[in-house]
User: What shape does this take?
Amino acid sequence: MKGIVIGAGMGGMSAAAALKKQGVDCEVFEAVKENKPVGAAISVWSNGVKCMNYLEMGEIMDKLGGPMHYMAYMEGSTGQVMTQFSLQPLVDAVGERPCPVSRADLQASMIDWWGRESVHFGKVIEKVEQDKVGITAFFTDGTTEQADFLIAADGTHSVIRPYVLGYQPERRYAGYVNWNGLVDIDTDIAPDNQWTTFVGEGKRVSLMPIAGGQFYYFFDVPLAKGLAEDRSTAKADLARYFAGWCEPVQKLIAALDDSKINRIEVHDIEPFPTLVKGRVALLGDAGHSTTPDIGQGGCAAFEDAVVLSTVLQHYDDIDYALQEYQRLRAERVKDLVLKARKRCDVTHGKHMTTTEQWYNELKQESGEHIMEGLKVTIAGGPLG
Assistant: This one.
């Protein structure tokens, strides 16, 4: 049996690892000539780390994961602590730590683990056809590739998704802009072992420690879509949007490198129940494009890969196996997308009375309620 994976991002490489684990021959095709991930870093929560362990890439997480042992929310204007607590009870409860990691290093490490020379770069998928025998992938360079089945891990702008769904779903603007990047750790800004988030006015500034002595930072501001701003004006824009915020936020903005700030208008896609058409299956952002508000985008892709691996292990009939994959994943990923959307609205002031209520709740939070929510999300994954 042979499989094709379209996309060499985190979803595609985890899918390739899933097939390898089951002894399935696999070819990976990536559109870009050089893999350049969007965004500086990613928070991989415990369910995602468990999946990476299952896929035999746990050493990558051990190497790249930052020491995120605590969590804190701070008032944006004053810098005063709203809540601060250890994440060790969460780790003890779920059996694995969370790992904030450099997105570029993670993707590069996954490709290297697979074998960079075995990934076909510069191969842009154009269309897919299938018959009773298998599938044929057509690329824009005029070449084709045949296999028994195909996994489409070609991202939120997936070319293959409309073929599977029968229509082109619209991306939904989530209502806020995210700026992100990496900066050297400065403990005058935030502790080097803590996920620190400053909140106020429906905005947030967040820092997570990753390996190599760096913070992954991001700024969120509720804004209209399509403003005449880009990464070239990012530092001045952030200084304006966060004028009057506390000294650590001002010091962070001052430390940023203009040329290395990413600016993203955040979108998601309404969940859909169809992930499979015959022998073509959607995986990762192609199958469930979510906002990053609960840190489950990458984790969901890793979960997809684990489920793909298990159904191939248990069922010889590829058509039935992929239907089982859809059955096992559709409700889970719908839940994650909608949970992230709900959290997005609260965090970013869609209804400011609700957001202000959340701020007040944070001041009474011991950490137990937040960690309970994290535990429920983590336990919903395929590895518990």
